[in-house]
Amino acid sequence: MTAHVPGGGLVAAVELDGDGAHPAAWRWSGRAPADVLGPAALRSVVRTAEDAGFALATFADGPLPPSSGLDAAGRLEAGTRAAFVATTTRSLGLAPTLHVATTEPFHLATQLAALDHATNGRAGWVVGTANDAASAATVGAVPLGDDALHRETADVVDVARALWDSWEDDSVVRDVATGRYLDPDKVHHVDFTGARFTVKGPLITPRPPQGQIVVIADAALGIADRADVVLVRGTDPDDVAAAATRARDAGAPRVFAEVDVVLDGSDPAAAARLAALDADTVWPPTGRLRHVGTPAGLVTVLKRLAGSVDGVRFHPAVLAVDLPLLATEVLPGLRDLLRRPGRTLRASLGLPRPANRHVAAGSPA
């Protein structure tokens, strides 16, 4: 099968929340209790991901703790985690999850613009849509219906994009002689009216280095035409390929497969380790392709997926075990297929830097 390469190769991304994707991952992390929310563990996994050649790290988040019962875990807010490692990384894209129904849209856009400035153009945004009763109650709201949530999601993405364009690229002049910091004619109100909110604007932060933050959305959200990267699921490569085709038909510029991984290479082997993890807390189906086995077997699967998708986001079951194996056994096996990280996240994805809507022409990424 001929590889699908609109962006010039396969982009490797990894989810770095907590101790791993499996709800019992904390039992295998090797961390002392005092280190759970400390900076060392976060710096370590981010460094491992960047040194391995991953182009993007994502950080899951939600209004509520990520698990409950004996597995209840605390986490630092995803945007804060991404900002913390912004200046310790050089090429790794950083994309926190921020939720549209529980985050004020203006502040969401500002936080992401600030992250893009802090990283010199490596920020992304995983669009979150937490909307259950308990999540909504954290902001004194009630859950939205499906249609209302879809409209809210589209509105928040649209107003964020409008706010990122509210400052033209050359609006900051810093003319000491005249005392002018900016050209007010190049800073614009957005005057956005959504179904549940209005935003006057402009943003308080100058236009991000990428022009537009990279927006990453699950295919199920139905906003492929508003996103830069659409995440697709499927329990086998054929299902993933079909989902990728649907996403492209819906307007997705880039499509990433979602893949859970439990890898051989440690003691016990992958299947036995997963069984032990599940004996503590069962890992429910995620809808993602799940590979339990050898790194070489995963490389074979990924080479097949390269004919359908532009990238893969890995969800290591246990970061302490599976991330090093991805770094040393899997990514090297994909060297001929992988796209090298670029100067900005858009460059890593092979996406152009968008023109500001208030001017006629854009510039390269």
TrEMBL record:
InterPro entries tied to this protein: Diverse_substr_monoxygenases, Luciferase-like_dom, Luciferase-like_sf
Domain of life assignment: Bacteria
Organism whose genome encodes this protein: Pseudonocardia sulfidoxydans NBRC 16205
Protein name: FMNH2-utilizing oxygenase
Residues covered by the Luciferase-like domain: 38-276
UniProtKB keywords: Flavoprotein, FMN, Monooxygenase, Oxidoreductase
Matches recorded under Gene3D superfamilies: Luciferase-like domain
SUPFAM superfamilies: Bacterial luciferase-like (SSF51679)
GO molecular function term, any single one: oxidoreductase activity, acting on paired donors, with incorporation or reduction of molecular oxygen
One of the Pfam families matching this protein, by short name: Bac_luciferase
